[in-house]
Amino acid sequence: MEEKISDNPGVIAFPPVLYAGTLLIALLLNFVFPIDFLPRSVTVFLGTLLIICALLIAILAFRAMNRASTAINPSHPTTAIVSDGVFSLSRNPIYLSLTLLYIGISLLFSALWALLLLLPLLVIVQIGVVKREEIYLERKFGEEYLRYKSQVRRWV
User: Fold this and answer.
1) Fewer CB in 10 Å around end: N or C, the chain?
2) Model pTM greater than 0.90?
3) Is residue 112 part of a domain?
4) Are 102 and 19 in contact (CB under 8 A)?
5) What is one process in the GO biological process aspect for this record (predicted)?
């Protein structure tokens, strides 16, 4: 019997759900066990700045992927290696934007719990999403992806 390899990376979960779920748990922890850690003016300023940066990066990444006519959702097949625009600075600008958005919201809510849960979240994203995507792209695009991978950093 022949094993069929699906044309997607088989990530463990839809990445925005990983970020949103972790953030929701952290905000609930913050509500039950609040911990003040920075002055409100600092958290509002930094949080707002990070959210704006996150949205800008996400918009630029979505536009680049749409121009290349490739899927944004990792459960769908990738049809092209996108290497221009923000993808020339980071191989994962959408995950970078989700991380910045997560940190920005954490700061706006002054949720130290969210910042504490960020490291485990990033480990899960790295192992369960990014690594799987890299294996898939290497298998599908071979030398083209390896060349891109050698020229552009994973995150920043």
Assistant:
1) N
2) yes
3) yes
4) yes
5) methylation
Q: Which pair of structure tokens corresponds to residue 33? A: 């066990």
Q: Is residue 7 part of a domain?
A: no
**52 is in which domain, residue-wise?**
15-25+39-72+80-151
How far does Cα 150 stand from its chain's mean position?
20
Give pLDDT tens digits for 96-155.
999 999 999 999 999 999 999 999 999 999 999 999 999 999 999 999 999 999 999 998
State which amino acid sits at residue 44. Answer: V
Domain count, the chain: 1
Does some domain include residue 49?
yes
Q: What is the pLDDT of residues 34-84, one digit of tens each?
A: 998 899 999 999 999 999 999 999 999 999 999 999 999 999 999 999 999
Q: Mark out the alpha helices in 2-111 (DSSP H runs).
A: 15-32, 40-67, 93-108
